[in-house]
Amino acid sequence: MKKQVDKDHYKFSEYLTKARWASVWHQLDEVMKFKPARVLEIGPGPGIFKSSAKTFGLNVETLDVDPELNPDYVASIFSMPFKDNEIDVVCAFQVLEHLPYDKSLQAFAEMVRISKTGVVISLPDAKRVWPMTIHIPKIGVANMLIPRPFLRLQTHDFDGEHYWEINKLGYALDKLIKDFKVMDCQLIRTYRVFWNPYHRFFIFSKQVENSPSSTDKTA
Which three-class secondary structure state does DSSP give residue 180? Predict the structure, then answer.
């Protein structure tokens, strides 16, 4: 497995947008809900998640095929150096789409194998939406993503990084939910980030009876 993205890709002015910061908040929030003792992040990029998590007392280790990113483990996602159920929560944010679709399923299965409690991932969702905020007196603020009508699914062409994206032709959300089903790991929630709807989160639990929430598909 070869790296696709050079270290220079992660420059502050180009990589760390306000929208991406919103996604980092959701990364931390979803992982912390599991109250894990040990977390593994696959594809750490510039290390924002790990550094932020440390502030809140999370023990995060990282794994990547690229040694220039200084991960704790230099290894392939297809064969990670851990025993079954060794890591409490395994996460990968905007990573699996960098693999051909069938390979991404293999990688996800490996993530499930080494996880003890849960798996948290995010993937690009290409479906166009209108973000809308409604202020309701005496109730508060409601944020909604309204799907744009009458839009056909676009064909995805490999751009040197992404092999596929959700809601491109052949990669409908329902297909992904079905294909990512792995024995003893259940999807408990999927949603898009309001401030960054290109990022869709999937929360999987290996202990469904103790899961943080129930399934909630949106937009």
Answer: coil
CB distance 61 to 39 below 8 Å: yes
Amino acid at 159: D
For residue 107, what are the domain limits?
7-210
Instruction: Kindly state whether residue 56 falls inside one of the protein's structural domains.
Output: yes
Q: Which pairing describes strands 115-124 and 196-205: parallel, antiparallel, or unpaired?
A: antiparallel
User: b/e map of 154-172 (b: 16 or more CB within 10 Å)?
Assistant: eebeeeeebbbbbbbeebe
Q: What is the CATH number of the domain that holds 32?
A: 3.40.50.150
pLDDT digits (tens, 9 = 90+) for 43-71: 999 899 999 999 999 999 999 999 999 99
**Residue type at position 30:** E
Is 173 inside any structural domain?
A: yes
- Asked if residue 172 is part of any domain, the answer here is yes
Q: What mean pLDDT do residues 72-98 have?
A: 98
Q: Which has the closest alpha carbon to 123: 149, 152, 156?
A: 156
Its pTM stands at: 0.86
